[in-house]
Amino acid sequence: MSYYSISAILTSAQKVPSTFDLPIPNLGFLDDNPGGDIAANTPLPLPLYLAELLAVQQLDNRPLLTLDLPASLQPRVLNALKADAKSVDLRGLEVYFFEGASRILELLEEEEVGDVLSEAFKKRAAEIADHARNARGGTSSGEGGEFLRGLDEWERGLFRAAHDSSKAVRLWMGEVRGTK
Predict the structure, then answer these.
(1) In terms of Cα–Cα distance, which of 81, 116, 92, 88 is closest to 102?
(2) Average pLDDT for 19-48
(3) Whole-prediction pTM value?
(4) N or C, which end of the chain has less CB nearby within 10 Å?
(5) Residue 48: which of 31, 23, 65, 24 has the closest Cα?
(6) What is the end-to-end Cα distance of the chain in Å, rounded?
(7) CA torsion angle for 121, 123, 129, 135 (degrees, to 10)?
(8) How many CA within 13 A on the CB side of residue 101?
């Protein structure tokens, strides 16, 4: 995580489902119980930055917290990504879908989820590149417009970079043709 990255900060604030494996005294305020304790096996959504810290901590060789896959990485979403990655509205699931997923997968041993997300990103990146090369910047209405509205923030950055590069190449080619 970059200290000055706004997207990293906003990703860290996303809530992730987690379960406390041990009773924790005096942290009841996390569960709307000020001054109380958190009982063992208490499910509680926590901001990603806090869940990451607690998930790696151990007490008597037992983890304090277990991270669960968020709704955006459940089998229903993964099956949709496998079937047609371009049709899934990732922004509707999470604004920082890929960034949050990569941070969660660093802590979980979910190899299949990582493989599905990697393949989905490749397919979506190819589609993003196609839209970015469009002379109108991929802003046409219809199916292409729906796809672009469903991009998460990483993908939007990729689209902007690809579009600006394509535009610069067209401008340069025009200048080269004009000097001959």
Answers:
(1) 116
(2) 88
(3) 0.79
(4) C
(5) 65
(6) 48
(7) -130
(8) 28
